[in-house]
Amino acid sequence: MTLFLHLSTMNFVVDDDDIPEDDVIIFSILYSCVTVVFAMAVLSKFLTNEFRFGFRSALSLAVLFLGEPLCQFFVKGPLGVGCFAAGCLLIYSILPASHLPVGNKAVVITGCDSGFGNALVKKLDAIGMHVYAGCLDKDGPGADEDISKAVEIVRLDVGSEGLWGLVNNAGVCYFSELEMTPEPIMRKMFDVNLFGTVNTTKAFLPLIRQAKGRIVVVSRRISFEGYGAYGMAKHALMAFSDTLRQEMKKWSVNVSIIEPTGYRTGRKEEIWEKLDENAKATYGLDYLDEIYSSLMEQCKTFPDDLTPVVRAMRSGLLSKRPKERYPCGAGADIFTYVMNLLPIWWGDTISLAMSPIPKSSHPAALRNDQ
C-alpha cells in the first residue's frame, strides 16, 4: 500500500508496505488521540485568557497542523507517534501555566501611587483578590512604624489563612552621573529601593510563610550611564531577591522578579539643590538641563501600555508554575541574555550608544578647557 500526502504543489510519497494495515489504523487512532488532547489543552488556555496570540501560540498551531502529517509520513510507525507526542508535550510545556483560583487570597502591593502598582491594584481587585495598597509618602512617619501598623492590620484581616502575596513595587529613580549624585539622593534611592523592600518583606514573611504564598519584586540589573546610583541599589536588590528565593524554597514560598523597561525619574532641581559647590562648578547647571531634556525625549518612546508588566505580576502571584524572572518590554529578555554574553568593551559600547546623555553635551569644566 502506498500513502500520498499532497501539500500545495508538492507530493510526498512514502512506501508503507512493511507496515500492516491494522497497525496503520492503530497509529492513525493514536495520532488522532494526541492531536485532540493537545488541541483541547491549548484551547483551554485561550478560553481562560492565560496567553494571547503570539510566537508561542503560533508555534503550537504549527505543531498541531504540520506535526502529525510530517511524523506520520516521514518517521512512520510507533517512533513517529512518539515524536509527535513528545513535540506536543514540549510545546505545551513552554506555554504559560494556568492560574490558581483566586479564592480568598490577599495581597499587599507597595508603590501604588501610579504606574505599575496602581494598574495592578485595579486588575487584582477586578478578579476578586483582597488587595492592600501602599503608597509612597515621603512626608510620612518612620518606615518601621508604618510597616508594623500595616502588618498588624493585615494579620487581623487574613487570620489563619495568612497573606498570599507581597508585591514590592515601590521605587524612586534619579538620573544623574555618579559624581553629580549628592549623598542624600543616593541614600534615598537605597532607602526606598533596597532597604524599604528588605524591611517590608521581612515584616510580612511570617504571614506569607503561613499561606505558602508568593513574593514578587520589581527590579532589574542596570548599568547605564546616568543610572549609576539607581543601578547600585537595584543590583543589591537582585542579590537579595535571588538569595531569598533559594532560602524560601523549604517553606514552599515562591519569589519572582519582574524586570520592566523604562523608568520614571526624580526632579533635577532636587539634585542641583543638594549638590556640593565643587560638583556644581565641574558640571554646571546647563549640562544637567541638557541631559534631563534628552532623557525626557527618550521617555516619550517608552510604551504607555502597562499590560505586559501587570500580566507578569499577576502570573508571579497566581501561576501554577511561576517563573524566577519575568523580563517585560520589547526585546527585554533577548537584550539581557545577549549583553551577558558579549565582551565587556562591546557591551559598554552598546550601553553608551543607548544612553540618553547627548554626545554633544559636555560638563562645564570640559567646555572651559575647549
Provide a compact summary of the structure.
With 370 residues, the protein is an alpha/beta fold. 57% of the residues lie in helices and 10% in strands. This is DHI2-like protein.
Write up what this structure looks like.
By secondary structure, the chain is an alpha/beta fold. The protein folds into two domains: 2-94; 106-369, Rossmann fold. 57% of the residues lie in helices and 10% in strands. It is built from 14 helices and eight strands. It has a six-stranded parallel β-sheet with strand order 4-3-5-6-7-8, with helices on both faces. Strands 1-2 form a two-stranded antiparallel sheet. Strand 6, helix 7 and strand 7 form a beta-alpha-beta unit. Helix 1 (21-47) packs parallel to helix 3 (77-94). It is globular, with a radius of gyration of 27 Å. The termini are far apart. Mean pLDDT is 79; it is low at 1-17 and 140-144. Pfam families: adh_short. This is DHI2-like protein. The chain crosses the membrane at residues 24-44, 51-67. Keywords: Membrane, Oxidoreductase, Transmembrane, Transmembrane helix.
